[in-house]
């Protein structure tokens, strides 16, 4: 649910969103998401991009200016908390990445 309304997510979208939410502030590359979310060690990495785009269309107020699922240029994608924070270490201002 988002803002009191049900979200119609595919299984793959749900798995991706659940994974990102469990790791707020951590950026993951497309190959890493393929492996960690869906257990794929090979495949077309553009599928991650497509699923992120579709998720943004469903969970973002303005999908062209995402606030929840951010692109970290040169790295991949991360989930930012609703309060605008990344979930990183506030003492150092750094984001956690695995």
Would you write up a description of this structure?
The protein has 98 residues and is mostly helical. The protein has three helices and two strands; from the N terminus they run H-H-H-E-E. The chain has a two-stranded antiparallel ribbon with strand order 1-2.
**Helix/strand/pairing class, anyone?**
mainly alpha
General form:
globular
Largest beta-sheet characterization: 2 strands, antiparallel
Low-confidence stretches are 89-98
Question: Could you tell me the mean pLDDT?
Answer: 85
Short characterization:
With 98 residues, the protein is mostly helical. Helices cover 36% and strands 8% of the residues. A hairpin with a 3-residue loop joins strand 1 (69-72) and strand 2 (76-79).
Which short descriptors sum up this protein?
98 residues, 36% helix, mainly alpha, globular, disordered C terminus
Q: What's the topology here?
A:
Blueprint: H1 11-22, H2 30-38, H3 46-59, E1 69-72, E2 76-79
Antiparallel strand pairs: 1-2
